[in-house]
Amino acid sequence: MSDFQTFMQLGVRHIVDIGAMDHILFLLALAAIYRVSDWREVIRVVTAFTVGHSITLAAAVFGFLPLSARIVEFLIPLTIVATCIENILVKNRSAALWHGHYRPVFATVFGLVHGAGFGGYLKSLFLDRIVLPLFGFNVGIEIGQLGVLAVTFAAIAVLDLAIRQSRIAQPRIAPLRLRVLAVSTAVMIVAARWAVERSPW
């Protein structure tokens, strides 16, 4: 097996592993506002996230990122909390900044933080060749993210169906809005607890 394939598989496993739950929760927070029919926008946002974390992942591997692991591990759950807050506060995306199309930029910036978290882990695996394994790892992460999103949207479809068929969704609260509030609040509580536990102070 080539270095590319090895590190691609490593990237996939790194995303779907239970130890990557903070990354999975961030993807869930990003996806919480979308319908299944919005899959193109979701892919744009997740790809922007990949671009962001690829930049700092490469910087960390090459030794250009001075941030300590403790600071990075603290910042990661904060990006999840911030995403959930944005989900909750922005009710009308068509009236928001850039008609709500700023989320790829949002995802890229937060991807920079998550990439720093990957960097320390990956740097310990490199020996002499870096570029091809790094590319393979990033491809694997993207494949893993798309797999997580497929499962996420299957779960979201089930949740949407349950909300529509229940008496919880009142006429004044649209089912989509109710789902956004429920998912974002639950994810935010978990991420906020992680942030407190990981506080470097």
Report on this structure.
The protein has 7 helices and no strands. The protein is mainly α. The protein has one domain. Helix 2 crosses helix 6. The protein is globular. The relative contact order is 0.21.
Q: What topology emerges from the helices and strands here?
A:
Blueprint (H helix, E strand, L loop, with lengths): L2 H14 L4 H11 L7 H23 L7 H21 L13 H21 L7 H35 L9 H23 L4
Helix pairs in contact: 1-6, 2-4, 2-6, 2-7, 3-5, 3-6, 4-5, 4-7, 6-7
Keywords:
single chain, 201 residues, mainly alpha, 7 helices, 74% helix, globular
Q: Quickly count the domains.
A: 1
What fraction strand? under 5%
Strand elements, count: 0
Order of helices and strands: HHHHHHH
Q: Fraction of residues in helices?
A: over 70%
Q: Tell me, what's the shape?
A: globular
Distance between the termini: 44 Å
Report the radius of gyration as a whole number of Å. Answer: 18 Å
Number of helices: 7
Q: Please state the average pLDDT score.
A: 85
The description of the largest β-sheet is: none
Spans of at least 5 consecutive residues with low confidence: none
Helix/strand/pairing category: mainly alpha
